[in-house]
Automatic annotation (TrEMBL):
Keyword Translocase included in the entry's annotation: no
Protein name: ABC transporter
Pfam families recorded: ABC_tran
ABC transporter domain mapped to chain residues: 12-240
PROSITE patterns tied to this protein: ABC_TRANSPORTER_1 (PS00211), ABC_TRANSPORTER_2 (PS50893)
Highest taxon of the lineage: Bacteria
Length: 328
């Protein structure tokens, strides 16, 4: 099933999807393609339509118009999706009075999943790093632990399409590592993963492609590598063995300048230059530094290309957050 899926039809194909709630247009002609074995990120400001789109993929809502195909099956005007789809929106549904292990066993029994019994449940708990708290009641779990338990529940279905809303929400570094390993492992085995997140670093680390929504419309969809071209100018931290020489070379490189308001003389880390310019100019600067014999010790974007592209393409001044949960 898994590897072969990657050579057939995509896991998700959406064309012209529309969805309104009264006078509010949540999705306005959205196209989306997600291949098997791909981690596809969904990002947008509050109210962009991300949650609505995720709900359609999970069968929690139906589109008003357009065509949606999931795992090779056309999805009509009923609340149903093909077998092999799993995930959660607005957090997983759990029983607070039951333990983590009991939750998974109950969910599997309700949905009649063939999980392999207790072994399958324990394996899912181990994958998300919850073995040590398998016997604890969920009412005492943190937000991050609940997110990981929701992911474990999805793993029981052996999904071919996994849909996750803010899977890293509330996670500590250890929990985030567990979730990242699970997601990348599933994708390597052929599962398509669609996830939304306001954490641009997570999306950049996990996703091969992203779709950016604004006001219910797609403003970008494609490989993360293409976003640098959409970002315009970026700010980069530059640390070298010779800050004075580096500053001179920056001034001599067409398209580059020290970022306004970020003069290193006024900074506690005065050896660090913050330079602004397009990616090709940054590449040219690196060549000039090497030719001049200046060692390059650090070169990193102050704001990731994904975050910069989000700001440029959506016309917002801030990256998306889950505060107040305004998204439709």
């Amino acid at each position: 099933m898994r590897k072969g899926d990657m050579h057939g039809s995509p896991a998700v194909r959406a064309r012209g999807i529309t969805k309104s709630f009264g006078d509010v247009v949540a999705l306005d002609g959205v196209d989306l393609d997600v291949a098997h074995g791909q981690v596809h990120g969904l990002v947008g400001p509050n109210g962009a339509g991300k949650t609505t789109l995720l709900g359609l993929l999970l069968g929690l809502a139906v589109a008003d118009g357009g065509r949606l195909e999931i795992l090779g099956t056309p999805v009509g005007r009923t609340l149903a999706v093909p077998d092999g789809v799993a995930g959660f929106v607005d957090g997983p549904g759990l029983y607070p009075s039951l333990t983590a292990r009991q939750n998974l066993s109950a969910l599997a029994a309700l949905a009649r999943y063939d999980t392999g019994g207790a072994t399958g449940v324990d394996d899912a708990l181990e994958q998300v790093g919850l073995t040590d708290v398998a016997g604890d009641r969920v009412r005492g779990f943190s937000l991050g632990m609940r997110q990981r338990l929701g992911l474990a529940a999805a793993l029981l279905t052996k999904p071919r399409l996994l849909v996750l809303d803010e899977p890293a929400n509330g996670l500590d570094p250890a929990g985030k590592n567990h979730v990242h390993r699970v997601i990348t492992g599933l994708a390597a085995d052929g599962t398509a993963v669609v996830l939304s997140s306001h954490r641009m670093d997570d999306l950049a680390a996990l996703c091969s492609e992203v779709t950016i929504l604004a006001a219910g419309r797609v403003v970008f969809s494609g490989p993360v590598s293409k976003l640098a071209a959409e970002s315009g100018e970026l700010d980069y931290r530059l640390l070298t063995s010779d800050p004075a020489a580096a500053r001179r070379l920056v001034s001599q490189t067409p398209g580059l300048r020290v970022a306004p308001g970020r003069d290193p003389a006024a900074r506690p880390d005065a050896d660090v230059l913050v330079v602004r310019g397009p990616v090709p100019a940054i590449d040219e600067l690196v060549v000039r530094l090497v030719r001049a014999g200046v060692a390059l010790r650090e070169l990193a974007p102050v704001v990731t290309p994904l975050e910069a592209a989000f700001l440029a393409l959506t016309g917002t001044g801030t990256v998306p957050t889950k505060a107040d949960r305004e998204d439709l």
